Amino acid sequence: MRPKTPPEYVEAYVNTSVIKATLPVYKLIILGIMAGAFVAIGAASASAAAHGIDNVGIAKSLAGIVFPIGMMMIVFIGGELFTGDTMMLMGVFHKRFSYLKYFRTLAFVYISNMIGAIIVAFLVVYSGQLKYSSGGLGAYTIKVAVDKVNGEFVSLFFSGILCNVLVCVAVLMSMAAKDAAGKVFGFLFPIFAFVIGGYEHCVANMYFIPAGFLAAKNPVYYEKAMELYGLTAEQIGEISFSTMLFQNLLPVTLGNMVAGMFLISLPLYVLYKDVIFRNPTHREYLQTEKENAVMKAMGHEKHK
Questions:
Q1: I want to staple 162 with a disulfide (CB 3.0 to 4.6 A). Which of 84, 90, 199, 298 is the partner?
Q2: How far apart are CA 217 and CA 196, in angstroms?
Q3: The model scores a pTM over 0.85
C-alpha cells in the first residue's frame, strides 16, 4: 500500500487541526488527560525497564524501545498531546482557523496533559511499583527528578527543540502510513532516537518530576537514593512544583514550541502552500485515491 506523499499528509494534518481547533473544551480536556496519562505510562515503563542497567547506552536503548508505547496508545486510542499539537500552526498559516483558537487549544491541552501525567505519577508511586530492586526503582525515580530540576536553562531549551523535532516528525510519519503496522514503524524510530539522545519532552517531565517528588516522601526510596546515587537531602529537597515549572518546564516547553512551530510547521507551509488546498490536479488525485479505496472495499478496482 502506497504511503501518503508529503503534501498529502501535511494536508491531512491541517484538516485534523481544524477539527482540534473547534473541539469543545471538555473534549480537549478529556483527550489531553488521556494523552498525558499515556505518555506517563510509557515513561514509567521505560524507567522500570532501564533503572538497573549501568551501561548508559544499553539503558537508553532499552528505554527507547519501551517509551513509545505512550505514543502508540495516543495514535490508536486517542488523545491530544501538546508537543504534537504545536504543529497546528500550519492551520493558522493556511488561514483555516485563528491564532486565538490555536493558542486556546494548546493551553487546554497543556494543562490537561499535566493533569493526566500527575495522576499516573500518583498511581505508580502508590501502586508499589517503585519497590523494584529493593527500592532501587524508587531511588532512580528520585535521581531523574533531581537531574531534571537542576539542568541549565539554555541546555534544557535546546534539548527541548531537538526532542520536539523528532516527536513532530514521528507524528507526520505515522500519518503518512495507511495501515497499523506502518503507523507503528512511522513513530517508533524518531521517538526511539529522542529517548536515546536524552532530549527533553515537557509532557514526559510532567510525570518524571512529580513521581520523583512523591517517591522522596517514602523513607526507603529516600535513603536508597542517597546510598545509590550519592544524593544529599538538600538536592532531594529541591524537587518541588515551583522548580518543576520554572527550572524545567519553562525552558523545555519553549524549546518544544520553537521546534513544532518554526522548525517543522513553517518549513512545511512554505514548501507546500502552493500545492495543498489550491492545486486542482492534486485534489483530483486525492479524490481518485479515495474512490479507488471505496471501489476496492466493494471488491472492484477503478483504474486511474
A1: 199
A2: 29
A3: yes
Please check whether residue 14 is in contact with residue 94, taking contact to mean a CB–CB distance below 8 angstroms: yes
Whether 136 and 215 have beta carbons less than 8 Å apart is answered as no
Residue count (the chain): 304
Distant-in-sequence, close-in-space partners of 215: CB < 8 Å, separation ≥ 6: 125, 130, 138, 139, 141, 142, 145, 221, 222
Residue 131, Ramachandran bin (φ over 0: left; ψ between -120 and 50: alpha; else beta)? alpha
CB-based contacts of 36, cutoff 8 Å, min separation 6:
81, 112, 113, 114, 115, 116, 117, 118, 119, 120, 203, 206, 207
Among 205, 196, 170, CA closest to 65? 196
What's the CA gap between 118 and 204, in Å, rounded? 10
Long-range Cβ contacts of 52-59 (<8 Å, 24+ apart)? 52/132, 52/133, 52/136, 52/137, 57/196
Regions in the chain scoring below 50 on pLDDT: 280-282, 285, 301-304
pLDDT tens-digit readout, 247-268:
999 999 999 999 999 999 999 9
For 173, the grid coordinates are: 510519519
6-273: CATH class: mainly alpha
Residue type, 159: S
Distance CA 93, CA 211 (A): 38
Q: What are the cell numbers at 76?
A: 490508536
